[in-house]
Amino acid sequence: MEPKPILIAGGGIGGVTTALALAQHQIPVILFEQAAEFSDVGAGIQLSPNCSRVLRALGLTQALDDQGFLPQYTQFRHWRSGKIISETSLGKSAEQTYGAPYYHFHRSDLLNLLVDAAAAQPLIQLKLSSRIESIEQIDNGVNVLVNGATHTGRALIGADGIHSKVRESLFGLQSPTFTGNVAWRALVPTSRLPENLIQPASTAWWGPGKHFVHYYVRGGTMVNCVCVVESKEWQDESWSINGHFPDLAAEFADWHPTINTLLENVDKQNLFKWGLFDRPPMDQWSIGRVTLLGDACHPTLPFMAQGAAMAIEDAAVIAACLNQLQDPSAAFLRYEKLRKKRTAMIQQLSRRNAKVFHLKGIAAWARNRAAKRAGGNTMKKLYGFDALRVFKD
Protein backbone atom coordinates (compact mmCIF):
# COMPACT_ATOMS: atom_id res chain seq x y z
CA MET A 1 0.00 0.00 0.00
CA GLU A 2 1.37 3.39 -1.00
CA PRO A 3 1.76 5.84 1.91
CA LYS A 4 -0.75 8.66 2.17
CA PRO A 5 0.63 11.93 0.87
CA ILE A 6 1.26 15.07 2.85
CA LEU A 7 -1.16 17.78 1.69
CA ILE A 8 0.04 21.35 1.25
CA ALA A 9 -2.20 24.40 0.89
CA GLY A 10 -0.47 27.17 -1.04
CA GLY A 11 1.78 27.24 -4.07
CA GLY A 12 4.05 30.12 -3.16
CA ILE A 13 7.78 29.95 -2.42
CA GLY A 14 7.27 28.34 1.01
CA GLY A 15 4.75 25.76 -0.16
CA VAL A 16 6.67 24.59 -3.22
CA THR A 17 9.98 24.47 -1.33
CA THR A 18 8.28 22.33 1.32
CA ALA A 19 7.02 19.95 -1.36
CA LEU A 20 10.55 19.60 -2.74
CA ALA A 21 12.02 19.02 0.72
CA LEU A 22 9.45 16.32 1.51
CA ALA A 23 9.99 14.60 -1.83
CA GLN A 24 13.73 14.54 -1.15
CA HIS A 25 12.86 12.37 1.88
CA GLN A 26 10.72 10.14 -0.40
CA ILE A 27 7.49 11.50 1.10
CA PRO A 28 4.68 11.93 -1.48
CA VAL A 29 2.96 15.33 -1.68
CA ILE A 30 -0.19 16.86 -3.12
CA LEU A 31 0.01 20.64 -3.33
CA PHE A 32 -3.14 22.73 -3.85
CA GLU A 33 -2.90 26.24 -5.29
CA GLN A 34 -6.09 28.24 -5.57
CA ALA A 35 -4.90 30.36 -8.51
CA ALA A 36 -5.06 29.19 -12.11
CA GLU A 37 -1.29 29.52 -12.44
CA PHE A 38 1.73 29.73 -10.19
CA SER A 39 2.61 33.37 -9.67
CA ASP A 40 4.12 35.55 -6.97
CA VAL A 41 3.36 39.16 -6.19
CA GLY A 42 6.14 41.64 -5.64
CA ALA A 43 9.31 42.13 -7.61
CA GLY A 44 12.65 41.47 -5.94
CA ILE A 45 13.63 38.98 -3.28
CA GLN A 46 16.89 38.54 -1.39
CA LEU A 47 18.07 35.01 -0.64
CA SER A 48 20.62 35.13 2.15
CA PRO A 49 22.92 32.13 2.90
CA ASN A 50 20.65 30.74 5.61
CA CYS A 51 18.03 29.96 2.97
CA SER A 52 20.14 29.55 -0.17
CA ARG A 53 21.90 26.61 1.54
CA VAL A 54 18.50 24.88 1.79
CA LEU A 55 17.72 25.48 -1.89
CA ARG A 56 21.15 24.28 -2.96
CA ALA A 57 20.70 21.11 -0.88
CA LEU A 58 17.54 20.45 -2.92
CA GLY A 59 19.67 20.18 -6.05
CA LEU A 60 18.98 23.69 -7.35
CA THR A 61 22.52 25.07 -7.33
CA GLN A 62 22.94 25.32 -11.10
CA ALA A 63 19.55 26.96 -11.63
CA LEU A 64 20.21 29.44 -8.81
CA ASP A 65 23.63 30.32 -10.21
CA ASP A 66 22.25 30.70 -13.73
CA GLN A 67 19.34 32.98 -12.81
CA GLY A 68 20.38 34.73 -9.60
CA PHE A 69 22.37 37.93 -9.23
CA LEU A 70 25.28 37.82 -6.78
CA PRO A 71 25.64 41.12 -4.91
CA GLN A 72 29.14 41.97 -3.76
CA TYR A 73 28.19 43.76 -0.55
CA THR A 74 25.37 45.19 1.50
CA GLN A 75 25.42 48.80 2.57
CA PHE A 76 23.49 51.50 4.39
CA ARG A 77 23.69 55.10 3.17
CA HIS A 78 22.69 58.54 4.41
CA TRP A 79 19.52 59.71 2.69
CA ARG A 80 20.83 63.11 1.60
CA SER A 81 24.64 63.01 1.44
CA GLY A 82 24.93 59.44 0.15
CA LYS A 83 27.68 58.76 2.68
CA ILE A 84 28.13 55.07 3.45
CA ILE A 85 27.10 54.45 7.06
CA SER A 86 27.97 50.75 7.09
CA GLU A 87 29.13 48.23 4.51
CA THR A 88 29.64 44.47 4.67
CA SER A 89 31.12 42.15 2.05
CA LEU A 90 28.96 39.52 0.36
CA GLY A 91 29.96 37.76 -2.87
CA LYS A 92 32.69 35.15 -2.42
CA SER A 93 33.29 36.36 1.11
CA ALA A 94 29.74 35.47 2.18
CA GLU A 95 29.98 32.01 0.63
CA GLN A 96 33.31 31.34 2.31
CA THR A 97 32.06 32.59 5.68
CA TYR A 98 28.59 31.05 5.73
CA GLY A 99 28.90 28.12 3.33
CA ALA A 100 26.35 29.42 0.81
CA PRO A 101 26.01 32.49 -1.42
CA TYR A 102 23.72 35.51 -1.22
CA TYR A 103 21.43 35.88 -4.27
CA HIS A 104 19.06 38.52 -5.61
CA PHE A 105 16.09 37.25 -7.63
CA HIS A 106 12.93 38.46 -9.23
CA ARG A 107 10.27 36.66 -7.20
CA SER A 108 8.53 35.16 -10.22
CA ASP A 109 11.85 33.81 -11.55
CA LEU A 110 12.51 32.06 -8.25
CA LEU A 111 9.01 30.61 -8.05
CA ASN A 112 9.21 29.36 -11.65
CA LEU A 113 12.52 27.68 -10.86
CA LEU A 114 10.97 25.91 -7.87
CA VAL A 115 7.81 24.91 -9.73
CA ASP A 116 9.84 23.46 -12.62
CA ALA A 117 11.77 21.31 -10.14
CA ALA A 118 8.55 20.20 -8.43
CA ALA A 119 6.84 19.36 -11.74
CA ALA A 120 9.77 17.09 -12.60
CA GLN A 121 9.48 15.22 -9.27
CA PRO A 122 7.20 12.14 -9.54
CA LEU A 123 6.37 12.23 -5.83
CA ILE A 124 4.78 15.70 -6.13
CA GLN A 125 1.32 16.40 -7.55
CA LEU A 126 0.65 20.07 -8.33
CA LYS A 127 -3.03 21.03 -8.52
CA LEU A 128 -3.95 24.50 -9.78
CA SER A 129 -7.35 26.20 -9.47
CA SER A 130 -7.74 24.17 -6.29
CA ARG A 131 -9.07 26.09 -3.34
CA ILE A 132 -9.47 24.13 -0.10
CA GLU A 133 -13.08 24.54 0.97
CA SER A 134 -13.09 22.56 4.21
CA ILE A 135 -10.75 20.57 6.46
CA GLU A 136 -11.61 17.53 8.54
CA GLN A 137 -9.20 15.62 10.75
CA ILE A 138 -9.84 11.88 10.90
CA ASP A 139 -8.25 9.06 12.90
CA ASN A 140 -5.25 8.51 10.63
CA GLY A 141 -5.20 11.56 8.43
CA VAL A 142 -6.86 14.70 7.12
CA ASN A 143 -9.64 15.12 4.57
CA VAL A 144 -9.81 18.29 2.51
CA LEU A 145 -12.64 19.26 0.19
CA VAL A 146 -11.34 20.80 -3.03
CA ASN A 147 -13.65 21.76 -5.88
CA GLY A 148 -16.28 19.37 -4.55
CA ALA A 149 -13.91 16.39 -4.33
CA THR A 150 -12.40 14.94 -1.15
CA HIS A 151 -8.66 14.32 -0.90
CA THR A 152 -7.14 12.39 1.99
CA GLY A 153 -3.63 12.86 3.27
CA ARG A 154 -1.51 11.88 6.22
CA ALA A 155 -1.36 15.53 7.32
CA LEU A 156 -1.94 19.08 6.08
CA ILE A 157 0.51 21.99 5.98
CA GLY A 158 -0.97 25.47 5.57
CA ALA A 159 1.54 27.47 3.50
CA ASP A 160 -1.21 29.75 2.25
CA GLY A 161 0.23 33.09 3.28
CA ILE A 162 -0.70 35.98 5.49
CA HIS A 163 -4.44 35.54 4.78
CA SER A 164 -4.24 31.81 5.53
CA LYS A 165 -7.54 29.94 5.41
CA VAL A 166 -5.87 26.99 7.13
CA ARG A 167 -4.91 29.24 10.05
CA GLU A 168 -8.45 30.58 10.18
CA SER A 169 -9.83 27.03 10.29
CA LEU A 170 -7.56 26.21 13.23
CA PHE A 171 -7.62 29.37 15.29
CA GLY A 172 -10.35 31.60 13.91
CA LEU A 173 -10.10 34.99 12.21
CA GLN A 174 -7.25 37.18 13.44
CA SER A 175 -7.08 40.89 12.69
CA PRO A 176 -3.70 42.44 11.84
CA THR A 177 -2.38 45.79 13.08
CA PHE A 178 -1.35 48.56 10.70
CA THR A 179 2.29 49.51 11.41
CA GLY A 180 2.04 53.09 10.20
CA ASN A 181 4.22 52.30 7.17
CA VAL A 182 3.34 52.16 3.49
CA ALA A 183 5.70 50.44 1.04
CA TRP A 184 6.07 51.12 -2.68
CA ARG A 185 7.66 48.71 -5.11
CA ALA A 186 8.95 49.45 -8.58
CA LEU A 187 11.37 48.19 -11.22
CA VAL A 188 13.85 50.27 -13.21
CA PRO A 189 15.38 48.94 -16.44
CA THR A 190 19.15 49.24 -16.04
CA SER A 191 19.41 50.40 -19.65
CA ARG A 192 17.70 53.66 -18.67
CA LEU A 193 20.31 54.52 -16.03
CA PRO A 194 23.76 56.13 -16.28
CA GLU A 195 26.49 53.51 -16.33
CA ASN A 196 27.70 52.44 -12.86
CA LEU A 197 25.09 54.57 -11.07
CA ILE A 198 23.94 51.52 -9.12
CA GLN A 199 26.62 49.36 -7.55
CA PRO A 200 26.31 45.55 -7.33
CA ALA A 201 25.01 45.77 -3.77
CA SER A 202 21.95 45.55 -1.60
CA THR A 203 21.66 49.21 -0.63
CA ALA A 204 19.36 50.79 1.96
CA TRP A 205 19.20 54.56 2.30
CA TRP A 206 18.09 55.65 5.79
CA GLY A 207 16.15 58.87 6.20
CA PRO A 208 13.84 60.58 8.68
CA GLY A 209 10.48 58.82 8.58
CA LYS A 210 11.28 56.76 5.47
CA HIS A 211 13.87 54.61 3.71
CA PHE A 212 14.71 53.41 0.19
CA VAL A 213 16.15 50.02 -0.82
CA HIS A 214 17.48 49.03 -4.24
CA TYR A 215 19.31 46.08 -5.76
CA TYR A 216 19.77 44.32 -9.10
CA VAL A 217 17.57 41.43 -10.27
CA ARG A 218 17.32 39.44 -13.50
CA GLY A 219 21.04 39.24 -14.05
CA GLY A 220 21.50 42.95 -13.51
CA THR A 221 19.09 44.04 -16.25
CA MET A 222 16.60 45.48 -13.75
CA VAL A 223 16.88 47.37 -10.48
CA ASN A 224 14.32 46.47 -7.84
CA CYS A 225 13.25 49.39 -5.64
CA VAL A 226 11.33 49.26 -2.36
CA CYS A 227 10.41 52.58 -0.79
CA VAL A 228 8.89 52.69 2.71
CA VAL A 229 7.18 55.81 4.04
CA GLU A 230 5.54 56.44 7.38
CA SER A 231 1.85 57.22 7.04
CA LYS A 232 -1.12 57.65 9.36
CA GLU A 233 -3.45 56.63 6.55
CA TRP A 234 -4.86 53.10 6.77
CA GLN A 235 -4.06 51.07 3.67
CA ASP A 236 -5.58 47.84 2.41
CA GLU A 237 -3.45 44.78 3.16
CA SER A 238 -2.72 44.07 -0.47
CA TRP A 239 0.36 43.89 -2.68
CA SER A 240 -1.38 45.09 -5.82
CA ILE A 241 -2.71 48.62 -5.24
CA ASN A 242 -1.62 50.82 -8.13
CA GLY A 243 0.61 53.67 -6.97
CA HIS A 244 0.41 57.26 -8.23
CA PHE A 245 3.92 58.25 -9.35
CA PRO A 246 3.77 61.96 -8.40
CA ASP A 247 2.96 60.93 -4.82
CA LEU A 248 6.06 58.73 -4.64
CA ALA A 249 8.31 61.31 -6.33
CA ALA A 250 7.18 63.97 -3.87
CA GLU A 251 8.10 61.78 -0.89
CA PHE A 252 11.76 61.62 -1.99
CA ALA A 253 12.12 64.96 -3.80
CA ASP A 254 14.83 66.26 -1.44
CA TRP A 255 16.80 63.00 -1.30
CA HIS A 256 20.16 62.22 -2.91
CA PRO A 257 20.34 62.59 -6.73
CA THR A 258 20.82 58.82 -7.14
CA ILE A 259 17.37 58.22 -5.65
CA ASN A 260 15.77 60.82 -7.87
CA THR A 261 17.46 59.38 -10.97
CA LEU A 262 16.05 55.97 -10.10
CA LEU A 263 12.58 57.38 -9.60
CA GLU A 264 12.69 59.32 -12.85
CA ASN A 265 13.26 56.04 -14.69
CA VAL A 266 10.87 53.66 -12.94
CA ASP A 267 8.35 51.69 -14.96
CA LYS A 268 5.37 53.88 -14.07
CA GLN A 269 2.88 51.33 -15.39
CA ASN A 270 4.05 48.80 -12.81
CA LEU A 271 4.20 50.89 -9.67
CA PHE A 272 2.46 49.44 -6.62
CA LYS A 273 2.07 50.23 -2.95
CA TRP A 274 0.82 48.32 0.05
CA GLY A 275 0.25 48.95 3.72
CA LEU A 276 2.50 47.02 6.09
CA PHE A 277 0.54 45.09 8.69
CA ASP A 278 1.88 43.20 11.66
CA ARG A 279 0.84 40.18 13.68
CA PRO A 280 2.50 39.13 16.94
CA PRO A 281 4.21 35.73 17.25
CA MET A 282 1.63 32.96 17.67
CA ASP A 283 1.61 30.76 20.77
CA GLN A 284 0.59 27.72 18.72
CA TRP A 285 0.93 26.72 15.07
CA SER A 286 -0.54 23.21 15.04
CA ILE A 287 -3.58 21.24 16.05
CA GLY A 288 -3.27 17.49 15.54
CA ARG A 289 -2.28 16.69 11.96
CA VAL A 290 -2.59 20.27 10.67
CA THR A 291 0.09 22.92 10.98
CA LEU A 292 1.18 26.24 9.47
CA LEU A 293 4.30 27.43 7.69
CA GLY A 294 5.83 30.73 6.61
CA ASP A 295 3.67 33.84 6.55
CA ALA A 296 0.66 31.81 7.66
CA CYS A 297 2.14 31.60 11.17
CA HIS A 298 4.98 34.16 11.40
CA PRO A 299 4.53 37.00 8.88
CA THR A 300 7.63 39.17 8.89
CA LEU A 301 7.92 42.84 8.03
CA PRO A 302 10.36 43.50 5.14
CA PHE A 303 13.02 45.28 7.20
CA MET A 304 15.49 42.40 7.30
CA ALA A 305 14.75 40.71 3.94
CA GLN A 306 13.99 37.48 5.83
CA GLY A 307 10.32 36.72 5.13
CA ALA A 308 10.85 34.15 2.38
CA ALA A 309 14.03 32.93 4.08
CA MET A 310 12.05 31.93 7.17
CA ALA A 311 9.57 29.96 5.04
CA ILE A 312 12.42 28.18 3.26
CA GLU A 313 14.04 27.32 6.59
CA ASP A 314 10.64 26.05 7.80
CA ALA A 315 10.48 23.76 4.78
CA ALA A 316 13.75 22.04 5.62
CA VAL A 317 12.86 21.58 9.29
CA ILE A 318 9.30 20.33 8.79
CA ALA A 319 10.47 17.83 6.18
CA ALA A 320 13.14 16.48 8.54
CA CYS A 321 10.59 16.18 11.36
CA LEU A 322 8.08 14.30 9.20
CA ASN A 323 10.84 12.03 7.93
CA GLN A 324 12.07 11.12 11.41
CA LEU A 325 8.80 10.93 13.37
CA GLN A 326 6.05 8.58 12.18
CA ASP A 327 3.22 10.46 13.92
CA PRO A 328 2.57 13.77 12.10
CA SER A 329 1.12 15.30 15.27
CA ALA A 330 4.38 14.64 17.09
CA ALA A 331 6.39 15.82 14.08
CA PHE A 332 4.49 19.11 13.99
CA LEU A 333 4.99 19.74 17.69
CA ARG A 334 8.71 19.09 17.22
CA TYR A 335 8.77 21.43 14.22
CA GLU A 336 7.11 24.18 16.26
CA LYS A 337 9.59 23.76 19.10
CA LEU A 338 12.53 23.99 16.70
CA ARG A 339 11.22 27.03 14.81
CA LYS A 340 9.24 29.30 17.13
CA LYS A 341 12.12 30.99 18.94
CA ARG A 342 14.03 31.87 15.77
CA THR A 343 11.04 33.08 13.77
CA ALA A 344 9.81 35.17 16.71
CA MET A 345 13.28 36.74 16.97
CA ILE A 346 13.22 37.65 13.26
CA GLN A 347 9.73 39.11 13.59
CA GLN A 348 10.81 41.20 16.56
CA LEU A 349 14.05 42.41 14.95
CA SER A 350 12.18 43.34 11.77
CA ARG A 351 9.66 45.27 13.83
CA ARG A 352 12.48 47.06 15.63
CA ASN A 353 14.16 47.96 12.32
CA ALA A 354 10.95 49.64 11.20
CA LYS A 355 11.75 52.29 13.82
CA VAL A 356 15.55 52.20 13.62
CA PHE A 357 15.65 52.84 9.87
CA HIS A 358 13.51 55.99 10.22
CA LEU A 359 15.19 57.73 13.16
CA LYS A 360 15.97 61.43 12.97
CA GLY A 361 18.19 63.97 14.71
CA ILE A 362 20.52 62.86 17.50
CA ALA A 363 18.95 59.37 17.55
CA ALA A 364 19.88 58.86 13.89
CA TRP A 365 23.42 60.09 14.57
CA ALA A 366 23.83 57.58 17.41
CA ARG A 367 22.38 54.79 15.25
CA ASN A 368 24.85 55.52 12.47
CA ARG A 369 27.82 55.35 14.84
CA ALA A 370 26.67 52.00 16.19
CA ALA A 371 25.67 50.47 12.82
CA LYS A 372 29.07 49.21 11.69
CA ARG A 373 29.81 47.47 14.99
CA ALA A 374 26.40 45.81 15.21
CA GLY A 375 26.17 44.69 11.58
CA GLY A 376 28.59 41.77 11.76
CA ASN A 377 26.97 40.22 14.81
CA THR A 378 23.51 40.40 13.27
CA MET A 379 24.66 38.83 10.00
CA LYS A 380 26.35 35.95 11.81
CA LYS A 381 23.15 35.22 13.73
CA LEU A 382 21.08 35.37 10.55
CA TYR A 383 23.25 33.88 7.85
CA GLY A 384 25.19 31.32 9.87
CA PHE A 385 22.02 29.44 10.82
CA ASP A 386 21.79 25.96 9.24
CA ALA A 387 18.20 24.68 9.05
CA LEU A 388 19.50 21.41 7.59
CA ARG A 389 21.14 20.52 10.88
CA VAL A 390 18.55 21.74 13.39
CA PHE A 391 16.78 18.40 13.80
CA LYS A 392 20.09 16.52 14.01
CA ASP A 393 21.51 18.88 16.62
Topology (SSEs and partners):
Layout: E1 6-9, H1 13-24, E2 29-32, E3 44-47, H2 49-67, E4 73-78, E5 84-89, H3 91-98, E6 103-106, H4 107-119, E7 124-127, E8 132-138, E9 141-146, E10 149-153, E11 155-158, H5 165-171, E12 177-189, E13 201-207, E14 210-217, E15 222-230, E16 241-242, H6 245-251, H7 257-264, E17 272-278, E18 290-292, H8 307-324, H9 328-356, H10 361-383
Parallel strand pairs: 1-2, 1-11, 2-7, 4-13, 11-18
Antiparallel strand pairs: 3-6, 4-5, 8-9, 9-10, 12-15, 12-17, 13-14, 14-15, 16-17
Helix pairs in contact: 1-4, 1-8, 2-4, 2-8, 8-9
Radius of gyration from CA coordinates: 21 Å
Q: How much β-strand is present in the residues?
A: 25-35%
| Strand order across the largest sheet | 5-4-13-14-15-12-17-16
Total helical segments: 10
**Approximately how much helix is present in the residues?**
25-40%
Backbone shape: globular
Describe the largest sheet.
8 strands, mixed
What is the SS-derived class? alpha/beta
> Low-confidence parts, pLDDT < 50 over ≥5 residues?
none
What value does the average pLDDT take? 92
Q: What are the secondary-structure elements, in order, as H or E?
A: EHEEHEEHEHEEEEEHEEEEEHHEEHHH
